[in-house]
């Protein structure tokens, strides 16, 4: 657990043992932990040098320093080191951009071939992001499906902001709604477009990955773009599509297979809100019903009740009423 601070497993074991038994001798610790005396001596030496443990000059007994003070100091040192590394990264990136100015096309564009290579670059692009990752998501998935994107939660944890536009056809993919709900819960912003021109992943304004068609040899291909005029154009394309796309706001799960409760007296239920959100995002009745685990008949019945509740006669009027009154927003 403390390896991120530079402690080895033996160091952590000895330190935790001393927290419970202050004033212990090295031999006592070795016996208690069933670790060789040499390993305990090395661990104690390292812990003393870091200020995590103190040694009595009188009798050679060891005592752990208070964690809040000792470990807090180590954490602060690591944090300061990471901050310096971030400044160095910014400087290196600027040097790289300057070096790339006037570079040949081969220096700005890297051709990637094969599923494994594309998957590797897809994860690397997200790992390289410092502030934001933007993407166009279309089917079929070339690198890996959204639920297997291990780089996304790690990047979110370090403060990277994610925005994605989904091709409307993707919403019919099995499990995609559950994946969308999970991503929205983590703070990812999602929008839906009727049709996207390509697959795309952008890390800040520095890197872009564009999967291409299958090569003549039968392998999928992609291009990795470094900062350039072409990458600037893709940056602008994303923002244009993002502004025109429809936001999708979902939460929770479909839950019941065929619920009997239609509409709450005071307004739409959470399930009604999910139905409206999906239909406003462009899904067909059949696709929305499938994603929510409903029969088409139940979906139609709930829509009829919502129209009665809103006092409207057409789907278009219901959609307008839902948008005005926040019916499609699920908390």
Structure report:
With 331 residues, the protein is an alpha+beta fold. The protein is built from 13 helices and ten strands. It has helices at residues 9-20, 26-33, 37-49, 67-100, 105-108, 115-128, 151-157, 176-185, 229-244, 270-280, 285-292, 296-310, 315-325, and strands spanning 53-55, 62-64, 109-113, 132-137, 161-167, 189-193, 200-203, 207-214, 220-226, 246-247. The strands form two sheets. An eight-stranded mixed sheet has the order 3-9-8-7-4-5-6-10, with helices on both faces. Helix 2 packs across helix 3 and helix 10 crosses helix 11 (285-292).
Summarize the structure.
This protein has 331 residues and is an alpha+beta fold. It has helices spanning 9-20, 26-33, 37-49, 67-100, 105-108, 115-128, 151-157, 176-185, 229-244, 270-280, 285-292, 296-310, 315-325; strands at 53-55, 62-64, 109-113, 132-137, 161-167, 189-193, 200-203, 207-214, 220-226, 246-247.
């Amino acid at each position: 657990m403390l390896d991120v601070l530079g402690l080895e497993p033996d160091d952590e074991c000895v330190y935790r043992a001393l927290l419970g038994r202050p004033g212990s001798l090295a031999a006592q610790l070795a016996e208690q932990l069933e670790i060789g005396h040499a390993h305990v001596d090395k661990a104690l030496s390292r812990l003393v040098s870091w200020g995590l443990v103190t040694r009595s000059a009188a009798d050679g007994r060891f005592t752990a320093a208070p964690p809040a003070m000792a470990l807090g100091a180590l954490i602060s040192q690591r944090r300061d080191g990471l901050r310096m590394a971030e400044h160095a990264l910014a400087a290196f990136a600027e040097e790289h951009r300057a070096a790339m100015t006037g570079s040949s096309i081969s220096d700005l564009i890297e051709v990637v071939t094969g599923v494994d290579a594309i998957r590797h670059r897809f994860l690397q692009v997200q790992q390289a992001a410092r502030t934001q990752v933007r993407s166009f998501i279309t089917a079929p998935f070339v690198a890996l499906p959204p639920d297997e994107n291990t780089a996304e939660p790690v990047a979110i944890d370090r403060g990277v902001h994610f925005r994605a536009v989904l091709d409307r056809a993707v919403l019919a993919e099995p499990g995609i709604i559950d994946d969308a709900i999970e991503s929205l819960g983590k703070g990812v912003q999602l929008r839906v477009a009727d049709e996207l021109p390509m697959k795309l992943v952008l890390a800040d304004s520095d890197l872009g990955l564009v999967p291409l068609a299958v090569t003549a040899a039968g392998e999928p291909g992609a291009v990795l773009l470094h900062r350039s005029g072409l990458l600037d154009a893709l940056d602008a394309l994303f923002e244009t599509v993002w502004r025109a796309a429809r936001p999708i706001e979902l939460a929770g799960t479909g839950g019941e297979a065929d619920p009997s409760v239609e509409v709450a007296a005071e307004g739409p239920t959470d399930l009604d809100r999910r139905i409206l959100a999906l239909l406003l995002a462009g899904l067909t009745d059949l696709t929305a019903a499938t994603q929510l685990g409903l029969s088409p008949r139940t979906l139609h019945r709930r829509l009829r009740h919502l129209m009665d509740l809103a006092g409207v006669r057409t789907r278009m009027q219901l959609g307008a009423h839902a948008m005005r009154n926040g019916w499609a927003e699920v908390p």
